[in-house]
Amino acid sequence: MCLAIPARVVTVDRDGGTAVVSLGGVKKEVSTALLEDVAVDDYVLIHVGFALHKIDPVEAERTLALFAQAGLVGGP
Amino acid sequence: MKYIDEFRQHDLARTLADAIAREAQGDRSYHLMEFCGGHTHAIFRYGVQDLMPANVTFVHGPGCPVCVLPVGRIDQAMRLVEQHDHVILCTYGDLLRVPASGRKSLLKAKAAGADVRMVYSTTDALKIARDNPEREVVFFAIGFETTTPPSAVAVKQAHAEGLKNFSIFSNHLLTPAAIQNILESPEVRELGSVRIDGFFGPSHVSSIIGTQPYEFFAEEFQRPVVIAGFEPLDVMQSALMLIRQINAGRHEVENEYTRVVTREGNVKAKALVAEVFELRRSFEWRGLGTVPYSAFKVKEAYAGFDCERRFDMPAVAAADNKGCECPAILRGAKRPTDCKLFATVCTPDNPLGSCMVSSEGACAAYWSYGRFRGAAANHDARRSRT
Amino acid sequence: MSAKLKPLHRLDLRNGCVDMSHGSGGRAASQLIEELFVRHFDNELLGQRNDQAAFDVGAGRMVMSVDAHVISPIFFPGGDIGSLAVHGTVNDVAMSGARPLYLSAAFILEEGYPLADLDRIVASMARAAREAGVAIVTGDTKVVERGKGDGVFITTTGVGIVPEGIHISGDRARPGDAILVSGTLGDHGVAIMSSRENLQFETTIQSDSAPLNTLVADMVAAVPDIHCMRDPTRGGLASTLNELAQQSGVGMMLRESAIPIREEVAAACELLGLDPLYLANEGKLIAICPQGKAERLLDTMRAHPLGANSAIIGQVIEDSYALVQMETRFGGSRVVDWLAGDPLPRIC
């Protein structure tokens, strides 16, 4: 499987098909060729120098809430 | 680090561990296969199995593209770069130390003078091709569906720029084919000697292919699949979801990694792959044997970027080391400790099989993180508290 | 008064290059030594211009250490091969508890190496030596043909004196001892990687390369009974702790949450798939001391500018396997193994 890391989009170069992302202060230029549209402050998944997918902030919150609820909700 | 640290929280781990301990029924055991090397790595790195009850076990699967790459393919690439001075072979770091035939590796070939260069991205390989027009640049393309779209983009880019000296050695693999192969194997289907009660679906492969391709498995093989995120809390939540399905007798595809994975995946990436690649009728996987429609090759329209058509690269049939149990380990039929070579002759310093070389491989993970689990447990009891 | 025969033209430090005559021992070599090395290193012993330096030593045990430096890139964020060489040898001597006194420096230069860069390196070494309070008192220069050297190789030897009553050694770790580090880990490793072309990431992380001798002096004065000290250079914290565990025949149990790592270093490691525990540090040390002295040692370290982020990261335990283990931040445990080779970035 594949090492892919979420990072925040800092600048976008639409013509060049690239963006600069930041993770904990480390910046890297990545290709946006696999995504339709990318905006500053989006979070994207980075793998081998490419942005693979956007991260959905609503779903992220929902997932974290699920973890916390695990203790309360039992069974399917 | 956002979307990373929150998914590693210690207190939430406890909450999930308690829930799993409550819901895992005492009178049965749960064998959950994590297909992906990334999950194997996370489980060991964070010690997730320490938080699981004894009747829940992880079965390590073949989702490590380095581990399942037949030795012969590495030999082919090595011969190419050794026999042709003008070839520059670009490769991801993962492949450099994999042992090939004759105890050689790409790293050793590099030490002996072959022009082998490590790159982080296909973008780097393209740059090398542009900067060295009189040399031939060959990119050793490995990986599952997560890593295939970047290769497709590179080929299209090379085509658009009219680059005449760039090609790829395609060893891209398909995940569903491997899952099917495992589930159809005699050990699983008939003999029941390898118990798999449920699957953790790969995180990032699924971000590309979506959850839809797994629906067939859940139905056909009557086993639940939960697409699990990469972080340890994701793995635990997914284990809980699998246990719940197993308890209820359900076998559906559920998605735990909803912040990245959707049902249809990344449509644009899939289209790019379909434009550049087509399925090979069959491909040999180390450990799984020949698997039909399980790998990609470059389409005719882009033949100029397929190194197997550009160069004469005769196939190399290479046998695995006799005592090496990688094949069984990759199928989940054996554990690293079942292999006679493990930790005796085969160590990270002297790896005989790729399960030991790749940090995603079950043997490497076992060695690094879990070799003396029994001893570790004793120490937990004995160490003094401050 | 004798008239010294001065060379007609000074060394062209701006545009000149090293050539074979600079290593030949003749006038050109002498000029290089005078106008570059002696000018920067400038101390009484070196100024005597003998092939050796003679000095008195006080009471106590003498300590000697040697290091060869072949780093690439030669200039990196936070330092260069010169400052690294000085810091490295000062630290090796200091890890025994000794006060470093004198250094020697031997240079192997590649024909064609720019004198401007050499000047920069030597100036940097001089600065590092002054900062550490040591003098570079003797040296040597050789030149190899173009293609037979990687620009500059430097070998440094250091000598020092260990004060009475100090016995620091890798085989002295005992169950119950506390394990301390003097600051954040992985900075140097990440700084080096960021300047390697094909990885192309931007970071503000600088190498932590620094002389630790004054920190060590404070430490041994406060806690003379320190058992072990070592600086986690190549191979990182993990390799160094494994070495000590093996030498002492003990195990170790670390707490991941206690290990200081900068956010940027952690982030770079996530991006490349590396483990910060295996990355090199050039301005940090590990100390192992009796449990009862741990707080005192920690306070002493934190009071020094180079030890501001010091922390107690674990404990020595009984273990016939001599394993280094760690309680993960997550709650489970893992073994921190000895590195097989250099950490390589991975995609999987």
Count of runs of 4 or more consecutive helical residues of chain A: 1
N-to-C CA distance of chain C: 73 Å
Gyration radius of chain C, in Å = 22 Å
CATH architecture of the largest domain in chain C: Alpha-Beta Complex
The number of E-state strands of chain C comes to 14
Oligomer: heterotrimer
- Most strands sheet of chain A: 5 strands, antiparallel
Biggest sheet of chain C: strands, sense, closure? 7 strands, mixed
Specify the CATH class of chain A: Mainly Beta
> Judging by the overall fold, what is the CATH architecture of chain A?
Roll
Shape of chain C: globular
- Supply the helix-strand structural class of chain A: alpha+beta
For the largest sheet of chain A, list the strands in their spatial order.
3-2-1-4-5
Number of strands of chain A: 5
Number of domain units of chain C: 2
* Poorly predicted spans of chain C: none
Task: Give me the side-by-side strand order of the main sheet of chain C.
Answer: 9-11-7-12-10-13-14
Structural notes for this entry:
The complex is a heterotrimer of chains A (76), B (386) and C (348). By secondary structure, chain A is α+β, with helices and mostly antiparallel strands. Chain A has 1 helix and 5 strands. Chain A has one helix at 57-69; strands spanning 5-13, 18-23, 26-31, 43-47, 50-54. In chain A, strands 3-2-1-4-5 form a 5-stranded antiparallel beta sheet, with no helix packed on it. In chain A, a hairpin with a 2-residue loop joins strand 4 (43-47) and strand 5 (50-54). Chain B has 386 residues and is of the alpha/beta class. In chain B, 40% of the residues lie in helices and 16% in strands. In chain B, helix 4 (106-111) links the parallel strand 3 (87-91) and strand 4. In chain B, helix 2 (37-46) runs parallel beside helix 16 (362-370) and helix 6 (148-161) packs across helix 12 (267-276). The model of chain B is unreliable at 374-386 (pLDDT under 50). By secondary structure, chain C is an alpha+beta fold. Chain C has 2 domains: 20-162, 60s Ribosomal Protein L30, Chain: A, CATH 3.30.1330.10; 178-335, PurM-like C-terminal domain (Phosphoribosyl-aminoimidazole Synthetase, Chain A, domain 2, Alpha-Beta Complex), CATH 3.90.650.10. In chain C, the strands form 3 sheets. A 7-stranded mixed beta sheet of chain C has the order 9-11-7-12-10-13-14. Chain C has a 4-stranded mixed beta sheet with strand order 1-6-4-5. In chain C, a hairpin with a 5-residue loop joins strand 13 and strand 14 (333-335). At the A-B interface, strand 1, strand 4, strand 5 and helix 1 of A face helix 1, helix 2, helix 5, helix 6 and helix 9 of B. Strand 3 of chain A pairs antiparallel with strand 8 of chain C.
